[in-house]
Amino acid sequence: MSSLFTVTDAVAPGVAVEIASGRISAAEIEWRGGRAVVATHAVEPLPPAALVPSLTAANAQDRPAVMTALNRVLERVGRPRRIGLVIPDVVARVSLVRFETVPTRAVDLEQLIRWQVRKAAPFPIEDAQVSHVRGRRTPEGQEFIVTVARRNVIEEYESLCEEGGAHAGLIDLSTFNVINAVLATPTAPVADWLAINVGADSASIAIMQGPDLIFFRNRSADTDGTVADLMHQTTTYYEDRLKGAGLTRVVLAGASQAGAQIEGNGFWKMLERSIEERMGIAVETVDPRQAATLTDRISAAPAFLDALAPLVGLLLRDRRPDGAKV
Length: 326
Description:
The chain is an alpha/beta fold. The chain is built from eight helices and 15 strands.
């Protein structure tokens, strides 16, 4: 799945960069014998509060520090001219909207979607950058995944890349690409499943029906309530409102690194046990190596795999495990 803000390149880039709270990371994918391989990678920490993801305010609070880390990362992956960019979930609002009848003209559909989401945006819709992709088709109509962000916030991330000499032709959210990494594996889920993605600034939960998003929520770190509360609300909504047939898998990304800063290291083990007891499902950690293998020289510590997952997901978006494009 994808819900890109910017699509200016006909060919997907070979390098993905993530600008996140606490770190900047990058990875390059190569195809060897029909298999995706992580050829190079880089991760650079950011000073505290250098980047503070926000829906409405400037994100780069210490731009020189962000640029120093970004330049180091770009240098280590060969100074690419074109990249795909992963940004924090917090900078956008994600909605699912449904229409009984879909306009045939793209411009009419765009106007209808903007009208539908205008009241939920915390800023004038005229200042928004709106992206949409088709979701699942239901008896009630066609669903669309709509992502809304303030235009100048997206432009801020683009300008950081431009200053580093890299054009961000594709821009997408972290959780969407963690999901893409799971969908790119040979064992991609085909029934209902749940993805939890944790960052230093927020936690997101998505319910999927195979490759289709049917529910999405993001909780920022300064919001009342815990991730466990969000988890309870999500599963209750799935059972009561969505009339779900039952979740078959639960996957977790981010808890080993930035996510541990939100609730504490011990919290995630307790959350995993709570999920397993309630649903009878073992919680899986997202492992991007199932979608893109690593060279022998690359270590695979849990924190590295958490950083790698959204990068692999963006680079393999819309591709089957055999490397063919969907």
